[in-house]
Amino acid sequence: MPKLYKAIKLSKGLKIGLREPEGEEWFADMTLNTNKRTCRKINVPFLPKDKKNMSLAEEKAVELFNFLQEKDEKERSYKIYVPTWQTKFFTSSLLLLWLTGILWIFLGFLGDAPFGQTQILILHGSMIIPTLVSLGVLIVSHLPEGWEPTKKRKSGLLLSFILFFLVVSGFLLFYTNTFISEQISYSHSTIGLVLIPLIFWHYKKKAVT
Hints:
Layout: E1 5-11, E2 14-18, E3 25-33, E4 36-45, H1 53-77, H2 84-110, H3 117-126, H4 128-147, H5 153-172, H6 178-193, H7 195-204
Antiparallel strand pairs: 1-2, 2-3, 3-4
Helix pairs in contact: 2-3, 2-4, 5-6, 5-7
């Protein structure tokens, strides 16, 4: 978070100041909760010779701080409940799918091992069934409740798009010619590699603006 110059603390979690040493407008530095801090302009020019200028800046900062606090509390009040068995089912099936994909890529670098790529590919393909089932269950229970809090909406949409792409590209690999299949396989493998880290990021993502 950028440093504020000529900063004035108004209350716990709120102070006003300038973004630059010779700045021309006031900014408010606000800590809404332990995971969310933001610095916003308050549309008040910095006029050091105007006696009412600082009072106006304080008033606007407090007004914005209260508004954002109420919004943040409302978002955090949403409780997204996903049954433990659904989470474990989805996590275990997706992890196995990811690991078999990693192993298939690894064997591709080594050449055809005794227990080669074909067998791993068959195992990888078979894991899509429980993964899709668990994904469907998770979508029904998670997406509707997870849509209201905006904290993780973008990362959730990104993950949804990636999962959709991986499913579609995986099926297309069986029905395309060699050249197109190679391009799809490369994209499928590359994006699939970052899937688990992205899910972890979505789960741990903090709302810092």
